[in-house]
Design goal:
CATH class of the largest domain: Alpha Beta
CATH topology of the largest domain: Rossmann fold
Structural class: alpha/beta
Bound molecules: adenosine-5-diphosphoribose
Number of helices: 9
Number of domains: 2
Largest sheet: 6 strands, parallel
Order of helices and strands: EHHHHHEHEEEEHEHEEH
Distance between the termini: 16 Å
Number of strands: 9
CATH superfamily of the largest domain: TPP-binding domain
Strand content: 15-25%
Length: 241
């Protein structure tokens, strides 16, 4: 029983916040960035997800995003996403995700904050135009009606997070009584400060990750396993009560 140590207090958790990263989508066939199957092992991350890289070679960055978009559009939520969505039936659940793949929403989760934006969303580099595009782009880089280049509406290295989203994420992290950190290396800030806000509010911290993370030593419970294996068992604890 993976959750033996918290089985008794499980019904006391009133506000559960998940902080998720690429690892939770790994079992949906979407490669992570840094884990052992890391996508960016053979790419130089800084060459593809920065505003400078984009302006230097928008075609290259768009080719990479187009490849990721088609991979993501054909991906399905896995047992980890589905378990979190099911948990909403039993308690107050919020997901603060670094992922841009929309799989939490596809699994049925209704309260998801996308800290780094969404790969479905695009915006103009100049005018106010923005939209959600679920199809492939015929021309790369795609152009806005105003004639300027469109870009993925995601947060690149060196860019700030959407302020309203980040403010809400900090509030939710500091008000939860249980934070489950699943599928993230906790390398990238400011998302990796969310467990600190939770800990300051005496929340219980649980890490679900086959590998050690930057903050493993801060966790109350560590499950060295995959999210698709662990999360269905976590949800079953709520069914028993
Ligand atoms: N289940 C749970 N965790 C997994 C699984 C799995 N099946 N497979 C891999 N992992 C773990 C890895 O061990 C690693 O710790 O998921 C983590 C993925 O870490 P990263 O690849 O660094 O992804 P993430 O933490 O989401 O990166 C944060 O950095 O590249 C930017 O903006 C991008 O949102 C991303 C951010």
């Amino acid at each position: 029983m993976m959750f033996e140590s918290i089985k008794e207090e499980i019904k006391d958790f009133k506000k559960i916040v998940f902080v998720t990263g690429a690892g939770i989508s790994q079992e949906s066939g979407i490669p992570t960035f840094r884990g052992k199957d890391g996508l960016w092992r053979n790419y130089d991350a800084m060459k593809l997800a920065t505003i400078d890289a984009f302006y230097e070679d928008p075609k290259l960055v768009w080719e990479w995003y187009n490849e990721r978009r088609s991979n993501i559009f054909s991906a399905s939520p896995n047992q980890g996403h589905i378990a979190i969505a099911e948990l909403e039936k039993y308690t107050d659940v919020t997901i603060l995700t670094q992922n841009i793949d929309g799989l939490h929403q596809k699994a049925g989760s209704s309260h998801v904050l996308e800290l780094h934006g969404s790969i479905m969303k695009i915006k103009c580099t100049v005018c106010e135009f923005h939209d959600e595009i679920m199809t492939e782009f015929s021309e790369i880089p795609p152009l806005c009606k105003c004639g300027n280049i469109l870009r993925p509406d995601v947060v690149w290295f060196g860019e700030s997070l959407p302020q309203d989203v980040w403010k809400n994420a900090m509030i939710l992290a500091s008000q939860c009584d249980l934070m489950i950190i699943a599928g993230t290396s906790l390398v990238v800030s400011p998302a990796n400060t969310l467990p600190i806000y939770a800990k300051q509010n005496n929340a219980v911290l649980i890490e679900i990750n086959p590998e050690k993370t930057e903050m493993s030593s801060e966790m109350d419970l560590i499950l060295r396993n995959t999210s698709a294996n662990v999360l269905p068992e976590f949800v079953s604890l709520f069914k028993e009560n």
